[in-house]
Amino acid sequence: MGFKYGERADYDIRANTDVDWAASVKYCKGSIEELKSRIEKYKEQVEFFSPQTIEFLKGMANGAASQLDKSEYAKEGTNLERIYNINISSALVKIPTGCNGFWVGKQATKDGKSYATFHSQGRYMGNDIMARHITFVAIPDDPKAHIVWMSTIAGCIGRGGEIVNDAGVVNGLFASDSGDYPEEVNAYGVEPHLSRFHALLYGDSAEKAAEIINLGTPEYREKTGRKTLLRARGVTLMFADAGTCLMVSYTAGPYAIRRPGDLGEEGAGYICQSNHNYQEFSYDENNEKTNIPMTKFAPEETEKKDSSYWRFWSPMWAIRNNYGKIDLEMVLRELTALHDRYDKDGNKYEYEQGKSFCAHKFSKAGDPGGSYSPVVVVPETLEIYEVPDWPCRYVNKSWNYINLNDFKALR
After folding, report:
1. Domain check: are 189 and 64 in the same one?
2. What is the pLDDT of residues 325-368, one digit of tens each?
3. CA distance 354 to 177
4. Are 149 and 182 contained in the same domain?
5. Could you give the CA distance from residue 98 to residue 100 in angstroms, rounded to a whole number?
C-alpha cells in the first residue's frame, strides 16, 4: 500500500515535505544529524507497533520518488526520511492547537441515524501545507484489515483530517496539550497521526479501535514489555461508530476516556470535543486507574473563554436544544456551520470571529483559516460528506459525497 497515493499526489507531497523538513531542521538548531537521530527514535516505536504503517510510508516514498528526488533537500535526507519526518513533525515542532467535532447518537436524531463530525482547525488555506489537502482510500491486501478512507495533508497519514473504515468506525484528532508539562506529556513514542491509521485498519468497533491505541497491539506489548502504548504527545482522539463514541485524552503515559453523558449530555446521546480535557482521573502506563486528572494537561480556561471554550460549549448546547430533531440536513446546514455562541450555562451570544464551532480567521495576506475541511460521517451507511472550506459557505451547496460500500467490491 501507499505507492498509488505517492504517485498521484507526488507534487504536493514534495512541496509539503520540503516545508516540514526545513521547519524540523530549524527546530533541531540546524543539525540534520540531530533530526535524523530523533526520527529514528520515533520510528523504532512505530516498527514495534505497526510494521504495516512503515510499509505504507515506504510505498508513498517510492510512489512520489520522481518529485521527491527533485527536492532541494534530497541530499540532506532520503525520500523515506523526509516522508517520515512530515508524519512525526507534530511531535517535534509545537503546532497551533485546534480541531473540533461532535458525535450525535441515533437516540438524539429524528431519522434514527448517528452522525460523527470533524473540523480541522488552526492554519490558513493559502500557500501552506494545509492547502495541499487530499483524500484517499486504502484497500489493504490483508483480508483482516479494513478499507480505510482518509482526509489528510498530502504526504501524511492521518494529519489534519478524519479517518473512516468500512466497519463504520470514525476517528478524529484534537490537540489537547497546554504545553505546561512537556516531560510528562511528550516522549519518543508513536505519533498519533500514525497510530490512528493502524487502529482504523484493524479496529472493528469504536471500543476496539480505542483499545489498540490505549494498550498497543499484543505484538507491541510483547516486544516492549509495556502494558500500554508509549505515545509521542498529548492529543484527544474521537472513536465513534453507530452505537457509541469515546473521546480519549492522551499524554505519552496517562490517558482517560470520556463517554456520552459524562458531562450531563441529555440522554447520553451526544458528545463534543475541542482542545481541552475534562476527565478528573487517568490510567497510568500500567493501565491502573489513578487520581491524576487529565485536566492537568489541558484545562479549560473558563474565565478567559478562549476559542476552544466556545467551540466546545456552542455545539453542546445547540445539540441539546435540538435533541430529537436532528437529521442529516441539520448537521450539514446548521450544526457544522454554527455561528451562534453558547457559554457553559447555555446563554446565547452573537457571532464573534474565531469563537464559534464554525470558527473563522484570516492570515495577514487575507487567506481564510480556522475551521476547514469539515467531514460528516453516517456510520450506519458508510456515507461520507466533506468540503474543503468553511462549512458555512456550503449551507446552500452540495457537499462532496463518498460511500465506502462502493469500494468493497474492489477487494
Report:
1. no
2. 999 999 999 999 999 999 999 999 998 887 889 988 776 776 66
3. 19
4. yes
5. 7
